[in-house]
Design brief:
- By secondary structure, the chain is an alpha/beta fold.
- The chain has two domains: about 90 residues, no CATH class; about 160 residues, 3-Layer(aba) Sandwich (Rossmann fold), CATH 3.40.50.2000.
- It is built from twelve helices and ten strands.
- The protein has a six-stranded parallel beta sheet, sandwiched between helices.
- Helix 2 crosses helix 3 and helix 10 packs across helix 11.
- The radius of gyration is 20 Å and the shape is globular.
- The chain starts with a strand and ends in a 5-residue tail after the last helix.
């Protein structure tokens, strides 16, 4: 059996595996870049889907981007995250908003900082960004922004446990990505009980549902500023975000993910390719 976690990056390994006369089942898990970019422009990635016995999506909204024959062999397995053992209370006197993820183009990483610049003078919002810059351009941009913007702090790469503690004490977790399969930060926010504001992208629509009240359109700085300000000042809206996230918390439980993988492996090892 081969489980490939990225259709394009694993394409060569998938082809070698499929050419073996005695090869077993092949499972290909699709990421956000697979679905939204690579399948449109990379023939090797598309061929990987054809060779697979089963495909795995991290959320159901991605089904819309697959062909009918691909959907029939696709299973949805949500990524899981553990509930923190020790609660962390938010800081008083500041409304912290966490942005978690490496700084790269697809994450639109400084969108939060740009939105924070437009907030009213009396706002207590502070954007706390965690994650390393994957090139010097983003490193310079984030450093300049942190020096010029009093509402923005870039902490760089942190050990996972420290990043999760900072997330847990935040009032909001913010997802600004242009594309995603299903962000780990969103699953971790649900597990930690922290409400989410997100760009309206497939990976989040599949996790939080189409009618979630905390979406803004990709790249819309003004809309993001309005959402942040509303979450800070409108208690009813903030609590509505929290309720909606709690309803989805069950999707990211580790036991659910483990059971989903067990079901898939039982299914595929007991059947020949269809």
């Amino acid at each position: 059996m081969l489980i490939a976690l990225h259709a394009r990056r694993s394409a060569a390994s998938i082809l070698r595996f499929a050419k073996r006369k005695d090869h077993g089942p092949l499972i290909v898990a699709l990421t956000g870049t697979d679905l939204h970019r690579d399948l449109k422009q990379n023939t090797a990635a598309r061929h990987s889907l054809e060779l697979a016995d089963r495909l795995v999506l991290l959320q159901p909204h991605g089904m819309k981007l697959l062909r009918p024959e691909e959907r029939s062999k696709t299973r949805v397995i949500y990524p899981s995250a553990s509930t923190p053992r020790t609660p962390v209370r938010p800081l008083s006197g500041v409304f912290e908003v966490a942005v978690v993820g490496h700084l790269r183009d697809v994450k639109d990483p400084l969108r939060a900082a740009m939105a924070a610049r437009r907030l009213p003078a009396d706002s207590l919002i502070r954007i706390v960004q965690m994650g390393s810059a994957l090139n010097q351009t983003w490193q310079k941009r984030a450093s300049r922004e942190a020096a010029a913007n009093p509402r923005y702090q870039w902490l760089g790469a942190l050990p996972h446990w420290r990043a999760m503690r900072r997330m847990q004490r935040s009032r909001l977790v913010l997802i600004t990505s242009k594309i995603e399969g299903c962000p780990n930060a969103a699953a971790e926010a649900l597990a930690a009980g922290v409400p989410i504001i997100s760009s309206r992208i497939s990976g989040m629509l599949g996790l939080l549902a189409d009618d979630y009240p905390g979406y803004f359109e990709v790249g819309d700085t003004a809309a993001l500023t309005r959402l942040l300000s509303r979450a800070e000042t409108d208690a009813a809206f903030y609590h509505a975000l929290g309720r909606a996230c709690r309803q989805q918390r069950k999707l990211v439980k580790p036991r659910r993910e483990l059971q989903s993988w067990k079901q898939l492996l039982t299914e595929i090892t007991g059947r020949s390719k269809q």
